[in-house]
Every structure is written in C-alpha cells, then in structure tokens.
Design goal:
CATH architecture: 3-Layer(aba) Sandwich
CATH topology: Rossmann fold
Order of helices and strands: EHEHEHEEHHEHEHEHHHHEEH
Strand order of the largest sheet: 3-2-1-4-7-8-9-10
Bound molecules: NADP nicotinamide-adenine-dinucleotide phosphate
Strand content: 15-25%
Structural class: alpha/beta
Number of strands: 10
Number of domains: 1
Radius of gyration: 19 Å
CATH class: Alpha Beta
Largest sheet: 8 strands, mixed
Helix content: 40-55%
Length: 331
C-alpha cells in the first residue's frame, strides 16, 4: 500500500524542502501539505508537482494555533485517508524575536562562544500573545495544536502491523531552564520558543510510553541553524548574507550550521527510512553539515527524563479537557 505522509508547515522552509526530498526519494508516497494559508499551500503544491508531475500531493488547511481549525482539518484528513504512516509535526513560530546584545557580546568572548552560536542559548527573547482559545500563541502553535491533531488522528495512526511515526521538528534551543512545569505555557517569561521546544521533547518521550503498544512511535529532530522565514524574522536576510562567510568558518567547528533548508531536512528525511522500534526515544536526531558541506545525522541524548515527560503529559491532557469544553460551550 502507498505510504501516506502528512507534513504541517509544509509551504516553506524546512517543511517544503522535506516534501521535495521525500518525493525525490519515493514518488509513490501520498503526500499531504497541512498549512494555514491555502494560497501558499497551493503554490507549494504546484512547485512540488512541477518537479514530480505524477506525484499524489494534497492540501488540507489547518491553523495549528486554533483548536477549531485543527478539529476541522483532522475531520478532512480522516475522510480522505484510511491510515497515516508518517505525521511530521513541523509548523512552528518564533514571534517578535529580539537578540539579547549583552548576552551576545559576553558569550562571544567566553568559552561557550561556539555552543552559543550552535544553540542560540540565552541569545533570543520573544514577545508572545494569547490566542482566541485563551492559550499562549507559541505554546498552542508549536505544541498544543499538534497534540490535538495527533489525538484526533489516532484511529489513522494506530496500526500494529506496520508501525507509524510522529516526527517533531524541535530545536537545540529547547532548554530545561526555559521551561517550568508550573508555567508550561510560558506566560511569565520571555523565552516562549525555547520553552515550547522543551515541551515538545517532553511530550515526545511521554507519547512513546503511551503509544508504542499501539504501533505508533515519536521522535524529535533538530534541523540545525537554517535560513528560512523564521531566521529572517530574527535578522534581515541581507545581514545573514553578509555574515555567511563567518558562518561557513564556524561550520568547521560546529556542524549544526546546516544553513540550507535542504540540509536542515536531513534528519527528518533520515527518520523516514528508519525502523521506529530501533530509535532511541530519549535522543534528539540532529541534522548536521560538515565544513565540506556533507550532510549527516547525529543522535544526541536529551536533557530530560521519563518522569518529567509523564507529568507534562498529565498536564496537557488536563488542558485538552478544559479547552475542548470551552470550545464546545462556544458552539
Ligand atoms: N530555521 C531554523 O534555524 C530552525 C531551527 C530549529 C528549529 N526550527 C523549526 O523548524 C520548523 C520549521 O520552521 P522553518 O525554519 O522552516 O520556518 P518557516 O519557513 O517559517 O516555516 C514555518 C512553517 O510553519 C507554518 N506555520 C506557522 N504557524 C502556523 C500555524 N498556526 N498553523 C499552521 N502552520 C503554521 C508556516 O506557515 P506560514 O508560511 O503561513 O507562516 C510555515 O509553513 C519550526 O518548527 C521551527 O521552530 C527551525
């Protein structure tokens, strides 16, 4: 049977590069682009069909920052497909990023300079907002909306005979110190992105505990530092172009500067051809690019444990109940 692959945030950056690479590797897959903007999704679809004219590429509109949109999109997916083999949870935002110049200058002259460039640790702050569902926007988009999508699609994802995979685009910017179990939506702080990516990692660990027996496996990926709309929100594209020679130089010391969306998608594509049972649920799979431009994948142990994953899972289940109730009352 043809594999069904669903990708959120598929209209640009890493998501679009992944779709292109998936079709180049296997043009028999049934690919579905899940995007919030239909026009952008249709133009991504046209671009993919231009290079793979016989491919089966569908579009479903979902805004993962809105529960009602997720429910509507999941309903369409359930009508269209009998099963889903791969669900790439890739859509993500980092709104209003600000660079902490003081931390940057301090880090530049410290022993942590390379790791600061590689992970963005302590460098970035964001200004979050609240969605119509009453949740923090970064949390709802990067984590909760995707969680609800998974829950809604469970009947299509559970198949013991041929295990299916959830593949999250996390980040090396996911940091335990930015996350708090008592403020898991990150209402208080200024590092909502880092917190949301740590929450993603915790959730993936817990999902494995709950779903492996149903034939569903979850993994997290870091695509490295990639030039996309997300990074162009931090600094304008001309600035990145200006410092590109420095980035190539740094790439000799840290292989996390993948730079192109094609290279950034390496670990996402690699997972497509892995037996999910053989993967380490506590590892994050990093896309890496060497100083000579060769791409490869490296697993790195995450800074978390099973128990924290399970406590976060209880909290997100609780939130799901509350939000669904609120949305039902509104209908
Ligand atoms: N670029 C990096 O260096 C980097 C590093 C680590 C992790 N990541 C992660 O990689 C993933 C892909 O990002 P990218 O770098 O490829 O940036 P991008 O080009 O901005 O892609 C983000 C995608 O997510 C979509 N999206 C955002 N909010 C959405 C929503 N509410 N509902 C549905 N779709 C939504 C965007 O759609 P629109 O076009 O409509 O906005 C876009 O398709 C993100 O999860 C990001 O956090 C990126």
């Amino acid at each position: 049977m043809r594999k069904v692959v669903v990708v959120t945030g598929a209209n640009s950056g890493i998501g679009l590069a992944l779709c292109e690479r998936l079709l180049s590797q296997d043009d028999q897959i049934r690919l579905c682009l899940v995007c919030r903007n239909t026009e952008k999704a249709e133009s991504a679809r046209s671009a993919l069909l231009a290079s793979h004219p016989s491919a089966d590429v569908g579009v479903v509109r979902v805004d993962v920052g809105s529960l009602s949109s997720v429910l509507q999109g999941a309903k369409i997916l359930k009508e269209r497909y009998k099963q889903i083999d791969y669900l790439y949870l890739n859509a993500g935002i980092m709104p209003n990023p600000q660079i902490n110049l003081k931390a940057f200058v301090k880090g530049l002259f410290s022993r942590k300079a390379i790791s600061m460039f590689a992970t963005g640790e302590g460098l970035l702050t964001q200004q979050d907002s609240v969605t119509a569902d009453g949740l923090q926007e970064v949390f709802e988009t990067n984590v909760f909306g995707h969680f609800i999508l998974i829950k809604e699609l469970e009947p299509l994802l559970f198949h013991m005979d041929n295990p299916s995979q959830l593949i999250w685009t996390s980040s090396s910017n996911a940091r335990r110190s930015a996350f708090s179990m008592s403020d898991y939506q990150h209402r208080q702080g200024l590092e909502s992105y880092s917190s949301s990516k740590y929450a993603t990692d915790l959730l993936s660990v817990a999902l494995n505990r709950h779903y492996n027996k149903e034939g569903l496996y979850s993994s997290v990926v870091c695509p490295g530092l990639v030039m996309t709309n997300l990074t162009y929100g931090i600094l304008p594209s001309f600035f990145w172009t200006l410092i590109m020679p420095i980035m190539w130089l740094i790439r000799l010391f840290t292989n996390s500067f993948t730079i192109s969306p094609y290279n950034g998608a390496e670990a996402l594509l690699w997972l497509f051809s892995q037996r999910p049972e053989s993967l380490d649920p506590l590892a994050k799979y990093h896309s890496c690019t060497s100083g000579f431009g060769d791409s490869y994948v490296t697993p790195v142990k995450m800074d978390l444990d099973d128990a924290s994953g399970l406590s976060f899972y209880e909290k997100i289940l609780d939130l799901e109940k509350q939000v669904r109730k609120r949305v039902d009352r509104g209908n």
